[in-house]
Amino acid sequence: MQHKNKNCKRCGLGYSPVSGHQEYCVSCGVTNTKEYKKKYFQEHKKEALVYQRKQRQIPEVKARKEEYDKKYRQNHKGQKKEYRTRNPKKVKAHNMANYWLKNLKSPGFEFHHPDYSQPLLVEVLPIMEHHALHAQLRQKQKI
Q1: Phi and psi angles of residue 118, each rounded to the nearest 5 degrees, phi first
Q2: 135 and 106, same structural domain?
Q3: Domain of 28, in residue numbers
Q4: Residues 108 and 71 in one domain
């Protein structure tokens, strides 16, 4: 069934609705959804945390979590040690940076080590920029 063209309630542009109940164009619909989720999360964050804490106290849930953790530790037992032995400079740099990051209490930022042999020579970057920088570095290594 084809629906007649409508004008978006938010931006006023014309669009072809997928269903008869659609009131917004695609881009405005996405924006509305993101705004709603953000608002809803902020409003209900405390309630969700209380609910999660209660759930963790239920014996069945607690047992499942413990079983999962046990399996995970068994499956990944040697990986941490192996990484530490292969990358001692990186580990030292990360430990020193994490110590300072915790003491500086700067949420939303991470340290980037251009040179792991100098662990205190770091750049403080927003998390997303840090991730993007590492993605670029990984691409350069592949080439």
Answers
A1: -120, 85
A2: yes
A3: 6-75
A4: no
Q: pLDDT means per 10 residues in the chain (143 residues)?
A: 73 76 82 85 83 90 90 81 90 84 71 83 85 88 76
Per-residue 3-state assignment (H helix, E strand, C coil) for the chain: CCCCCEECCCCCCEECCCCCCCCCCHHHHHHHHHHHHHHHHHHHHHHHHHHHHHHHHCHHHHHHHHHHHHHHHHHCHHHHHHHHHHCHHHHHHHHHHHHHHHHHCCCCEEEECCCCCCCCCCEEEEHHHHHHHHHHHHHHHHC
Same domain, 114 and 69: no
Query: Dmax of the chain from CA atoms?
Result: 66
Has residue 80 been placed in a domain? no
